[in-house]
Amino acid sequence: MLTSLYVEGDTFLHRQRPGAKLALILVVGLALYFTGRMAVQAVAMVIAGAIYFSLPMTVREAVYRLKPVLLAIAVLGLINIWLLSPQEAAVSTLRLLAVVFLAAAVTATTRIGDFMETITWILQPFERLGIIRAADVGLALGLVLRFLPDIFAHYEGLKEAHAARGIAFRPLRAIGPLMILALKDADAIADAIDARGIRGDVSPSNGERR
Amino acid sequence: MKTSNLVVVALFAAVIVVLGFLPPITLGISPVPITAQSMGVMLAGCIIGARRGAAAYLLILVMVVAGLPVLSGGRGGISVLMGPTGGYVVGWIIGAYVTGLIAQSTVREGQPELRQYIGFFLASIIGGIAVVYAIGIPWLSVAAGMPFSKAVIVNLPFIPGDLIKAVIATLAARAVLAGYPMLPSRA
What we know:
The complex is a heterodimer of chains A (210) and B (187).
Chain A (H helix, E strand, L loop, with lengths): L11 H4 L2 H16 L4 H16 L5 H25 L2 H23 L3 H11 L1 H5 L5 H31 L10 H9 L2 H10 L15
Chain B lengths: L2 H19 L18 H9 L1 H16 L12 H5 L3 H21 L6 H31 L4 H8 L3 H21 L8
């Protein structure tokens, strides 16, 4: 139902650590932002584009994934040509394309599990401060993926219930009932999680560490 | 966080993802089609409150970073955040929090219906529109190298649609408050 944007392969990027790849995006993004020179942006865009389009997926697939972002960049580029100058519009468009291609390449070469490990690692300081339990993020993500089919089923059920009663179905009007259907199971699911001790040393009554 | 709150956050995030799969709806007044997902910020704050609502959007952000196409139109991946519209995604988290704060302080069970509607509507407009734009527009301006005033103008066509969304979110939030109140048990 929800397919990850990861692309199976064994390229140089696939073999790098997810944390290093995320840091690369930040560094390149910031560096490009502080450079106004078009040549630098153009070279960066060509290199990032070459990396992204050389990944083991079809060009069609590669373009399709970025369609909404590329469309937004194109529209903003045209507006900038009209507002500022073709020169400035080219600099900002090339910079955005470079960063977006690089980011998309990192997304396509990193597994969800590896990302989650890195995100959990990034959250460690917050765990020490007692703001969040890093392991909860992974659990919550798993729950979302588990709940998705149920919520789709709830939505289809609402549709059928309308049809059975001969009432026109309006998706927007279904939001309230859909929320109630989705949330009313929360307590039972929480009890099931606590009964199995999935969250470890968390006491069910208040969620604080024992 | 209590386990039940963790589950509510995950359930709500799942609903937000499902809303992204629903086809956009065009209403006469607004030039931009209405996507059910973009109402999620208002719904999150008004229905499950500030902390859980913001947590649901943090979870969405984690999924986007992890490469799951959970945003409407099958968008996902770090490129969404690094692109010109990344500020809106970050703005959703704070927007949901502010929406929740206002909804929690203005809406109570047992109030006259009209007051509840007004509370939810104000919360949706301030948290779901003003706060989201307050983060999204400067980001757009910086990322696209566009003067701030022009970035504001680029966003104007979306405002009528946003107001319609606030109305729909208000109706839905009030329906949930009447049918299965979650807001009072704020995390």
